[in-house]
């Protein structure tokens, strides 16, 4: 999906995500001005990350493409505002809120007999990672490498995020890697 997406398309998606957050905060109706056809209407998977002054305020997304990309972005932007791990995004957040849209490539399965095998299949800074054992599932976007650049720490933090016990490789876990393209709509913003 990301290969067909132009820089203009990506900027439109980031603006659309920010507009969805603003509409939800202000109680207004979202009015999207998009091209009538093209990559934004193709089925796609995205994540929307909201940060205030560099502090995470929400990150929600889709790993599989199930709806048109522009609808996936709006859905994930609104859901990121109430990320269950964090307090809800408020009017006070809006002026300093940075919005990032990550458009995901299709995941590719990689060997996962142990952590070393998974790490050998990843390129830091390029690949995101999905781990799934049938009961639990967790992912880190490729951009998480900026905060966790050491591969073992990246993997350990993802295992912890997924709720797997420290120090042992989870039995029956499957792994997929994927790439993404990120587009931003930066603060500052006019207060609501």
Give your account of this protein's structure:
With 192 residues, this protein is α+β, with helices and mostly antiparallel strands. The longest helix has 20 residues, at 7-26. The protein has helices at residues 7-26, 69-80, 115-120, 151-161, and strands at residues 43-44, 46-52, 55-61, 67-68, 97-104, 108-110, 128-132, 137-140, 174-178, 180-185. It is built from 4 helices and 10 strands. The strands form 3 sheets. The protein has a 4-stranded antiparallel sheet. A 4-stranded antiparallel sheet has the order 6-9-7-8, covered by helices on one side.
**What structural class do the secondary elements suggest?**
alpha+beta
Mean pLDDT: 95
> What is the tally of beta strands?
10
Characterize the main sheet: 4 strands, antiparallel
Count of helical regions: 4
N-to-C span: 34 Å
Shape: globular
Report a brief summary of the structure.
With 192 residues, this protein is an alpha+beta fold.
Q: What key phrases describe this protein's structure?
A:
192 residues, 4-stranded antiparallel β-sheet, 4 helices, globular
Secondary structure: elements and pairs:
Elements: H1 7-26, E1 43-44, E2 46-52, E3 55-61, E4 67-68, H2 69-80, E5 97-104, E6 108-110, H3 115-120, E7 128-132, E8 137-140, H4 151-161, E9 174-178, E10 180-185
Antiparallel strand pairs: 1-4, 2-3, 2-5, 5-10, 6-9, 7-8, 7-9
Helix pairs in contact: 1-2
């Amino acid at each position: 999906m990301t290969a067909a997406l132009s820089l203009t398309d990506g900027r439109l998606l980031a603006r659309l995500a920010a507009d969805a957050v603003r509409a939800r905060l202000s109680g207004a109706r979202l009015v999207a001005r998009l091209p009538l056809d093209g990559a934004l209407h193709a089925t796609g998977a995205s994540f929307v990350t909201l940060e205030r002054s560099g502090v995470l305020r929400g990150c929600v997304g889709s790993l599989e493409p199930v709806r048109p990309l522009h609808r996936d972005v709006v859905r994930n932007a609104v859901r990121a505002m109430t990320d269950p791990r964090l307090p809800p995004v408020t009017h006070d957040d809006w002026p300093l809120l940075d919005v990032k849209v990550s458009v995901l490539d299709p995941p590719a399965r990689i060997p996962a007999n142990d952590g070393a095998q998974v790490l050998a299949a990843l390129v830091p800074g390029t690949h995101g990672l999905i781990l799934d054992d049938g009961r639990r599932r967790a992912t880190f976007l490729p951009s998480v490498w900026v905060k966790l650049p050491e591969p073992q720490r990246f993997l350990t933090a993802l295992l912890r995020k997924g709720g797997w016990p420290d120090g042992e490789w989870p039995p029956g876990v499957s792994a997929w890697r994927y790439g993404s393209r990120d587009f931003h709509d930066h603060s500052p913003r006019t207060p609501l």
